[in-house]
Specification:
Number of domains: 1
Number of strands: 2
Structural class: alpha+beta
Helix content: 40-55%
Number of helices: 2
């Protein structure tokens, strides 16, 4: 099971990021699959908040791209 949120950091499709919560075991998959919708929505909101914070940090670098060797 994966709960994911996507974001474009600009008006193109070049700067696309995804933040996801993915299960790695059957037990965890069952847990996420069986949580109430309100809990799943709360987890989704947490991912959106985290993605907002990541975007704030990355957008600084979008304005002034760097080159990598």
């Amino acid at each position: 099971m994966i709960i994911a949120r996507d974001r474009y950091l600009d008006d193109t499709s070049n700067l696309h990021v995804t933040l996801s919560l993915a299960t790695r075991t059957g037990v965890m998959h069952s847990l996420l699959s069986n949580i109430p919708d309100t809990t799943r929505d709360a987890v989704s909101d947490i991912l959106v908040d985290a993605l907002n914070r990541v975007e704030q940090h990355l957008k600084v670098h979008v304005a002034r791209p760097t080159t990598h060797p």
